[in-house]
Amino acid sequence: MQPIQGGHGGPMEHAEVLIVGGGNAGISLAAKLLRDGVAGVTLVAPQPVHRYKPLLNYVGGGEATMADLERPMADVVPESCTWIRDAVDAVDPAVSTVRTRLGRTLRYTTLVLCPGLEEDWAATPGLQEAYADGWAAATYVPGSAPRVWPALSAVRSGTVVFTVPPEPASCGPTALKPLFLACDHWRRTGVLDGIDVRLVLPERTSVGIPSADEVLERAFAEYGVQVLRESRVERVDADLHSLTVSTPAGPQVLEDVVFAHAVPSYRAPAWIADSGLADPATGLVDTDPETLRSRRHESIWAIGDAAGVTPRPSGGALRKQVAVLSANITADRDGEPLQRYDGYTVVPITVGRRTLTLTEVDRAGRPTPSVPLVDPVKPRRATWWFDRYGLPQVYWRRILRGRV
Ligand SMILES: Cc1cc2nc3c(=O)[nH]c(=O)nc-3n(C[C@H](O)[C@H](O)[C@H](O)COP(=O)(O)OP(=O)(O)OC[C@H]3O[C@@H](n4cnc5c(N)ncnc54)[C@H](O)[C@@H]3O)c2cc1C
What we know:
The protein is an alpha/beta fold. Helix content is 28%, strand content 25%.
């Protein structure tokens, strides 16, 4: 699928269903809608490359390359979808139009917002400079992900800091994957005892689900990870190789840090709030978490990381959100009752080089395992294999083609 590019001076273009964002949510929804017989699907997406983001953590653990997770957008946009290679700058719900960065005005009947989250570098002064310096990097920032494993695997002694990003974040606790992959490597190579591994956690525990937290706490103890809880990186100094962390006991400075896997904070794009579509408390699209419809405008819907419809957004959550939203867009037109999303989400975390614990829960935190009778939280090689090798194939072949 080749994109329509450039500015537009002609008559106003109209889309039956206009999708903003060509990530996991936007592409899989476009494919599912077309498969469900909805015509006139248009996608506004600026980027030339599509990434399967979960593999970024394996890049940071030396278990994958960027080539394993990147495809040209032209290969993943569905054939009968109109792709406008541009970015949305504003929505005017009163007249059902969006304005784009290249100056288009597009009219829609139904609008779906799925632009994901963006890095909030200003929230952590000094962090961007530390990335430029090469002393900090993280799997969450694709441009820096290839630097993570060479840096971690070269450490033989000293202090290494890891962080989990505060919410809103994109499956935040998976930022622990590179930590455990590095710890396992250091243990196998006999240097772990000489490395002071620090973890800055925004909450008291990693996932907030007792069964998963128990597994992770045991793994922290086994590797000797020192955890700073309910803490955040406030400031970073690349020259001094130090991080200032706010903790419940007051600020603590971590000095002489050899390498910082410091994930930036995230926020929803500002134009969502500027267009009057955000929940003021979070900045995310103000969406009914069950029907996935905007609480402010009937013709607007949202899914994915920017939608605020599940406590921990994830790609796994999108498998359910896409199915519910595609059904609801059709049901709404036909005057049928809407389906409801139960808040299902996933948190997969490697706790060793070849083992993974998988949490699958609904909005209330109740277990909702995909494979009945198997406890996915118990670390297993089979779940690791599926996460690293099985799911990427399911993603490219089925999820992005609207077949799940
Ligand atoms: C490092 C990492 C590891 C992860 N690991 C896992 C995992 O193991 N399991 C799991 O289930 N989930 C995981 N996730 C989460 C998962 O990748 C996300 O939940 C998922 O990608 C969200 O999809 P999305 O479409 O909402 O957002 P994104 O995938 O971020 O896509 C949003 C798209 O919208 C585009 N966009 C932004 N602004 C505009 C605009 N103004 N106009 C048009 N387009 C715009 C962006 O360019 C982007 O392509 C991980 C995420 C990261 C970052």
